[in-house]
Design a protein that fits this description.
- The protein has 355 residues and is mainly alpha-helical.
- Helix content is 48%, strand content 7%.
- The protein has 15 helices and six strands.
- A three-stranded antiparallel β-sheet has the order 1-2-3. A three-stranded antiparallel β-sheet has the order 4-5-6.
- Helix 2 packs antiparallel against helix 4, helix 8 runs antiparallel to helix 10 and helix 12 crosses helix 14.
- It starts with 6 loop residues before the first strand and ends with a helix.
- The C terminus is likely disordered.
């Protein structure tokens, strides 16, 4: 091997590679990468150090690396305009990608590398991580850091058919109200979500500032769409009640936000989900979450004859497809129970029931 002067060996990396520093007489020590001495990247780092070109500072990534790409994407408009909850999930995935592959070059990234990264994951987890890879790869292409979109040809994994969150039933609603009376924080959280159809993250951000002229109006964190519902009264299909008003009046203290901790602090969506899940279990409601309340209300509105536009206005959906997905079970129940079918069809149904 060619002699390489000014190398100081100080132990080994966990990988087993020798840990080297480059140091000219009287100069600072420059750490060299965790690679064999004959590796091209090690040789380049040695040449850079000998020429006085600075190495990336500790905690920084080399230009053109996946680590630098992740840092750039985290500062991009695309990432910063995502919903807060989405940014939290994606940030954990991006940090993991940077930890695992940060030293690799973006220009070397290929679909096969992404498939290998996703392979150990279950279908839903793999598809969620693929969304992050796609966003990062597309951003790198748009910024001119790569010539190809490495994630473009990576297909999502087939997942088991599922409607997602299970809707609550009227029996669940009654059970929760029986367990948590007016005056409890759990009941207030429920009434906010039941009345407005809001997700629990949006419920945590609601306060008097959202109530004006008899309407509750807010912007959904996830989709940035506007949703509105009458505070009192309303059309019959809304099944108006004063339960939310009574729950708000029974609060032991008044704060800017309606839903707070016992100390008056704001609840984070993550902790609120866990807290409300415990309240559900205490009421005997198993396998259902706060989001199931939103789906329950969507189905109730449809069963009661609300138009698609009316349902979208309450729930803050921005497409009719979203609204239809939430309330399709109600349509099935209406088809089964309708009485305007031809006599032959009704007779057939009766004869089948007797068999």
């Amino acid at each position: 091997m060619t002699r390489m002067p000014y190398l100081d060996r100080v132990g080994e990396f966990p990988s087993g590679n020798p840990r080297f520093y480059f140091r000219l007489p009287g100069g600072p020590r420059v750490p060299l990468p965790d690679l064999p001495r004959d590796h091209p990247k090690f040789l380049k780092a040695y040449a850079d150090a000998a020429a006085g070109r600075p190495a990336p500072a500790r905690g920084q990534s080399a230009p053109g690396s996946i680590g630098a790409g992740v840092a750039g994407y985290l500062a991009s408009e695309h990432y910063l305009t995502l919903a807060t909850s989405t940014r939290g999930v994606w940030r954990r995935a991006l940090d993991d990608i940077r930890t695992r592959y940060g030293r690799a070059l973006l220009v070397d990234l290929r679909a096969s590398h992404i498939r290998k990264d996703l392979a150990p994951l279950a279908a839903h987890a793999a598809n969620n991580r693929l969304k992050v890879w796609r966003a990062l790869a597309r951003w790198a292409l748009d910024m001119g850091l790569t010539e190809i979109d490495a994630a473009r040809d990576v297909r999502p994994r087939a997942t088991p058919a599922s409607d997602g969150f299970t809707p609550w039933t009227r029996a669940d609603v009654a059970a929760f109200r029986a367990r948590w009376p007016i005056g409890t924080a759990q009941r207030l959280a429920f009434e906010i979500m039941h009345h407005t159809g809001a997700a629990i993250g949006d419920a945590c951000a609601m306060g008097d500032q959202h109530l004006k002229d008899g309407w509750i109006t807010y912007t959904r964190a996830k989709s940035r769409t506007i949703a509105a519902s009458p505070f009192t009264g309303g059309p019959d299909w809304f099944e108006p009640s004063d339960d939310l008003a009574r729950a708000l009046d029974a609060r032991p203290a008044r704060h800017l936000l309606w839903l707070t901790t016992a100390a008056g602090a704001a609840r984070s969506p993550k902790s609120a989900r866990q807290w409300f899940a415990s309240a559900c279990r205490a009421a005997g409601i198993e396998g259902k979450t706060a989001h199931g309340i939103r789906k329950h209300r969507a189905q109730v509105f449809r069963e009661n004859g609300a138009t698609p536009d009316q349902r979208m206005a309450i729930l803050g959906h921005d497409t009719s497809d979203q609204e239809a997905h939430y309330s399709k079970a109600a349509d099935l129940r209406r088809i089964i129970s309708r009485t305007d079918l031809p006599n032959s069809a009704r007779t057939f149904g009766k004869s089948e029931a007797k068999t």
